[in-house]
Amino acid sequence: MWLAHLYDFITYAVLTYLAVQILLYVLIAFFSLRATRGYINRNSFVDYKLLAVSPYAPTISILAPAYNKGANIIENVRSLLSIYYNNLEVIIINDGSKDDSLLQLIEAYQLQKVNYFVSYQIQTKEVRGVYKSKNPIYRKLLVVDKVNGGKADALNVGINLASNDYIVCIDVDCVLEQDALLKLMKPFLETTREKVIASGGVVRIANSCSIQHGRLLKINLPTQYLPRMQTLEYIRAFLLGRMAWSRINGLLLISGAFGALDKEIAIKVGGYNPKTVGEDMELVVRMRRYMEETKQPYKVAFIPDPLCWTQAPSNFKILGRQRNRWMRGTIETLGLHKKMFFNPRYGILGLLCYPYWFFFELCAPAVEVLSLTAFVLMALTGGINWQMLVSCLAFIISFGYMYSAFAIYIEVKTFNQYNRKTDIIKLLLTGLLEPFVYHPFGTWSGVKGYIDKLRKKSVWGELAHQGLNKIPSTIVSVTIPATVIMPARTVIVSKHA
Length: 497
Description:
Elements (H helix, E strand, L loop, with lengths): L1 H42 L4 H6 L6 E7 L6 H9 L6 E8 L5 H8 L2 E4 L12 E7 L7 E6 L4 H11 L4 E5 L4 E2 L3 H10 L5 E11 L4 E3 L2 E4 L6 H23 L10 E5 H6 L10 H15 L4 E13 L5 H21 L10 H16 L1 H17 L5 H28 L7 H10 L3 H21 L43
Parallel strand pairs: 1-2, 1-6, 2-5, 8-12
Antiparallel strand pairs: 3-4, 4-5, 6-11, 7-12, 8-11, 9-10
């Protein structure tokens, strides 16, 4: 009898978890649709060219950490220098590269070492030298050479050196749209009672795209399965997930691949945390927590336009490392800010955003594995209602397909980057394998993230970088919520339920 009650408890617990998750997905789809429509209507008559040349435009410092990027660093920097914006400086932070990255930059951009005051407002590894170009054409460029300390430490050096009001953090091997900065900075200019402390935009997959001299010439849907599946994943995560959360000012994350921050607030909270592998998420959460604790009205903005293109992992080994790191970063961030958990002092941040990430991002892989384990035990002891189980699985998988189809529909009706009918069909077909291949692998990678965190493994992982023009398999710092990918697949139905 006790076993039957245990089976019933497990069944109802899992079904409740899934029901709440699906309800949240429906709400996310609803809010994202309204938010996207509102954004397009508000921006249909905006002339970004006026902002680009205006002397009153926000001043920006682009921070681009570089570690062993010699394969393509010259063209990457050329791409950043060609960005259409007036009040701009580009700071390349050479994070103790072991290759010839710095030598290439010195030769290509006629750099010379200069005396430059470094204000250590944020403690970092030692700065070995600061370089500026003798050629006035490259007056916006500043190159910093420092002792290796990781991406977070490199970004903190950039913050210390930045002379402008806003910092834009970017992976050096990303490709930006020419008007990306103009759109990213627009929320900071809008006159509201809320202070915008961060702004992020849509990141898209550049695999199989035509890129030359750091510019995106032609957008193509990735030919390989994994990058194509990540394309669908990113569409769901950005156009639906982040757009919906931004509508209620609930964003906890601005992608490390491309995002803007208020430098003053970033410095006040101590900059990036070099002790976490999820430094981009942790800093945004810390900035939000600071604004809540000091009772200042604020906003974290999101731009649904595709602003940044980056390479995605094209093999399971590197993809697994990436998802492992995302999970460890989530564990670290939520652990550091556990004080906010269901704490009404932090408003929506403590009562909705943090609990959502805890239950449906952090716990999702654990719930799936425990559910699968219970399913096996119940099947061996005859405790499964098979008819109900099959019905529930069919419903969940069908819901996942409809959610993906809805995301593709929003993409087609808005920015339509993949405008060939065959591309849309390929995206839809790609999603068919997700419940059986991609999602289980992502869950297992998340579980390995738990294990590595328990083992106190904090390394980033060695990666192969070949440069954007050579279609590398590289990890980028773009964190996507796990449950924005697909709902949990394991459903247990006790035959007593």
